Amino acid sequence: MFLGHYGVAFAAKKVAPKVSLGVLFIAAQFADILWPVFLVSHVEKYSIVPGISKVSPYDFIYYPYSHSLLMDIVWGLILGLVYYGITKNRRGAWVVALLVISHWILDLIVHIPDLPLSPFGDIKVGLGGWNSVAFTIAIEVLFFYGGLIIYLRNTRAVKPVGNWVLGVLVVLLTLLYFLSTFGKADNGPLIMLFIVFMLLQTILVLLANWSDKNRRLV
Ligand SMILES: [Zn+2]
Fold first, then answer.
1. 158: CA distance to ligand 1 center in Å?
2. What spacing in Å lies between the alpha carbon of 67 and ligand 1's midpoint?
3. Helix 133-154 and helix 3-15: axis angle, to 10°?
4. Distance CA 105, CA 102 (A)
5. What is the rounded distance in angstroms from the CA atom of residue 151 to the CA atom of residue 134?
6. In terms of pTM, does the model score above 0.90?
7. Rounded mean pLDDT of 23-31?
8. Which of 87, 138, 162, 199 could disulfide-pair with 214, CB 3.0 to 4.6 Å?
């Protein structure tokens, strides 16, 4: 899943209004931020296998450190603790932790059975939403725009920039999703994947914080 994670982050603003949108983005996408790090360090492994599912050509051969249920719970607790250490915001820290774990649950809906429960066993799960193009788009759009509507209802722009940066962010995310899903994927060099992923995540987090800073809660 891609867009859906950002939708959950948008929606989380309602329950954790003091947490910046950029931090909510990082938490919801933490597994996908770790993934390229583990790929370049050759700890995790993937391959492009066209047709492995109707939507995604990614064969996630081995990725239990970024994408197992157990490790995402561990990462969630670590990120939540770090957030608490910095801000002393207990509620926000719990939301950050739960957002990290939500990544695995959302991925579970669309992935074919390739998601490990822990790094210590062979059990892999996935409900296979990616076997249907219509279902995949429906669920991504539902989560993303549903979350966005919740965010829009709970915040108001104090300066025009709070609206138009948010607009740019939403268009960029939608474009990235459709380009990456229906574009051509290949087994490029890992370092390129790492750089592109990190650059995009950084841009998205910066845009989210820029917009969020110019909006206030209602
Ligand atoms: Zn993921």
1. 34
2. 7
3. 30
4. 5
5. 26
6. yes
7. 98
8. 162
Angstrom CA distances, 101 to 50, 91, 180, stand at 29, 16, 24
1 CA distance to ligand 1 centroid (A)?
A: 6
Q: Residue 14 — pLDDT band, cuts 50, 70, 90?
A: very high
> CB 34: neighbour CB atoms within 10 A?
21
Calculate how far, in angstroms, residue 107's C-alpha sits from the geometric centre of ligand 1.
6
Q: Give me ligand 1 centre to Cα 85, in Å.
A: 26
| pLDDT 10s digits, 169-211 | 999 999 999 998 887 777 778 999 899 999 999 999 999 999 9
With contact defined as beta carbons under 8 Å apart, do 154 and 218 qualify? yes
**Tokens standing for 192?**
């390129």
| Domain hosting residue 7, numbered range | 3-217
Closest-CA residue to 93 (of 106, 108, 78, 72): 78
Query: 104 C-alpha to center of ligand 1: Å?
Result: 7
Whole-number Å distance between alpha carbons of 86 and 81: 9
- The total domain count for the chain is 1
Query: pLDDT of 139-153, one tens digit each?
Result: 999 999 999 999 999
Q: State the Cα–Cα distance between residues 92 and 102, nearest whole angstrom.
A: 15
In this prediction, residue 166 carries a pLDDT of 98
Instruction: Tokens for 11, please give them.
Output: 């929606």
- Ligand 1 center to residue 7 CA distance, Å? 14
Tokens, residue 140: 């991504």
